[in-house]
Design brief:
Radius of gyration: 19 Å
Distance between the termini: 30 Å
Helix content: under 10%
Low-confidence stretches: 69-77
Strand content: over 45%
Order of helices and strands: EEEEEEEHEEEEEEEE
Number of strands: 15
Largest sheet: 7 strands, antiparallel
CATH class of the largest domain: Mainly Beta
Number of domains: 2
Shape: elongated
Length: about 150
């Protein structure tokens, strides 16, 4: 499973740490072994999300499962920029739109093949395509941005 990890609002590309390298030593405190070095991470829930403090530096962290439509995406669905993300790993079969195209809610934007099934990703609202990040033949991971609407 590839999780989406955001640190201070920026998506972080990371590789999963083996479970044996992370140990909870007390509630909200974790010992992490990474590249032969040991770190202590303290987790504190805040109104904005989860604050993680390592070596005196605090970071606001959000971890989401890309298969779920997150609350942040639900709040943004009605207006402004919207990024259509791949809900699963797969291969882009066809891109049905180009930059500048006006699209309507329910209109197909991209077709992704996963587990021998083709899935048409559709616009959730009316808008204009401002970016096409994928092309036919591309391999995508869950959570990768395919098309951006304004």
């Amino acid at each position: 499973m590839k999780w989406n990890v955001f640190v201070d609002g920026q998506r972080l590309d990371w590789r999963e740490l083996p479970a044996q390298d992370i140990e909870q030593v007390e509630t909200g405190v974790y010992s992490i072994l990474y590249n032969g070095r040991s770190f202590e991470a303290r987790l504190t829930p805040t109104a904005e999300g989860l604050a993680v403090t390592v070596k005196g530096q605090s970071f606001l962290v959000e971890v989401t499962d890309p298969r779920n439509f997150s609350s942040r995406e639900q709040a943004d669905a009605g207006a402004g920029r919207q990024e259509l993300k791949s809900p699963m790993p797969g291969k882009v079969i066809r891109v049905l739109v180009e930059v500048g195209d006006r699209v309507h809610a329910g209109q197909g934007l991209v077709v992704v093949e996963a587990m021998k099934m083709q899935n048409e990703m559709k616009a959730s609202r009316d808008g204009v395509v401002t970016r096409v990040a994928a092309k036919g033949g591309d391999t995508v991971c869950a959570g990768d941005v395919l098309v951006t609407l304004e």
